[in-house]
Amino acid sequence: MESFDLLQPYKIAEETFVIPWALEAPPVGHFPMNSMVIRGAEPVLVDTGAPAVRSQWLEAAWSVVDPLDVRWIFLTHDDRDHAGNLLAVLAACPNATLLTTWFSIGRMAEEWETPVNRCRFMTDGDTIDAGDRTLVAKRPPLYDNPTTRALFDPKANVLWAVDTFATNVPTPVPETAALSPDEFRDGQFFGGRLVSPWVALLDAQKFGAVVDDFQHLNAEVIAGCHCPVLRGAQISEAYDLLRQLPGVPPWAEFTQADLDEWMAVAESSVPPEQPRPSGT
């Protein structure tokens, strides 16, 4: 790939595109905030982006597919970075059915009323016929929301892993191949514990069986909201790192002392206020 710009969709497989975004996350770099479009015979939006960049996200999505052609909106879960533009997307895509869950609709009701007549429930193991492909919903090994389902496209061999494989990155990149081995390993350990701190409570053998089941989808390309795209040997490496997470000590959260230190540094770097000219 010659260039990489946030909110500029890029192709990751046949008829499959990631819409990339990222948040600065000092002092650990950046966190990807991605979504995906499957163009295909019956186009699918996979998550709807964050409200902070609504107009840019919508423009990016409609540069890949005409909103009138969109037939399915797969909402992995109701967190704001995934569902933030849902109402705008539903309004722009009158021919689309929302693939969601009963619990997600309930959780979103505190902010808006989801049009139930446009919904279809798609829980773990369910499939949907999208014309030229059959998509599979799958509970991922790691998640930060109880409604979460990943999405697997066997035709393109692409897995949308949602928040599993989350990682911080020094600077936004399209694929994990751009990371050093240390950045890749440390990022997987950091992101996994950040997204799912409960992983430290798990029985490693039982968790390993869940990881094995997910890996047996045999995806050739893995994309996700909070990770660059994984391919090749890094896919099996990511699964191996995932299996190790129950035995990794929990991540120590940043404290008020850290915040005080950051604020002191920020204040020391601000130029002193200049005196105002007389008469103002």
Could you explain how this protein is built, in words?
The chain is of the alpha/beta class and 280 residues long. The protein has one domain: Metallo-beta-lactamase, Chain A. Helices cover 29% and strands 20% of the residues. It has helices spanning 54-64, 80-83, 86-92, 102-108, 181-195, 204-215, 233-244, 256-269; strands at residues 10-13, 16-19, 22-24, 30-32, 35-38, 44-46, 72-74, 97-100, 119-121, 127-129, 134-138, 150-153, 158-160, 221-224, 227-231. It has a seven-stranded mixed sheet. A six-stranded mixed sheet has the order 10-11-12-13-14-15, covered by helices on one side. Strands 3-4 form a two-stranded antiparallel ribbon. Strand 14 and strand 15 form a beta hairpin. The chain is globular. The N and C termini lie far apart (54 Å).
Briefly say what this structure is.
29% of the residues lie in helices and 20% in strands.
Q: Count every beta strand, where a strand is a DSSP E run of 2 or more residues.
A: 15
The largest sheet, given as strand count, sense and whether it forms a barrel, is: 7 strands, mixed
Mean pLDDT: 95
Detail the poorly predicted runs: none
Strand-residue proportion: 15-25%
Q: What is the fourth-level CATH superfamily?
A: Ribonuclease Z/Hydroxyacylglutathione hydrolase-like
Provide the number of structural domains: 1
Percent helix range: 25-40%
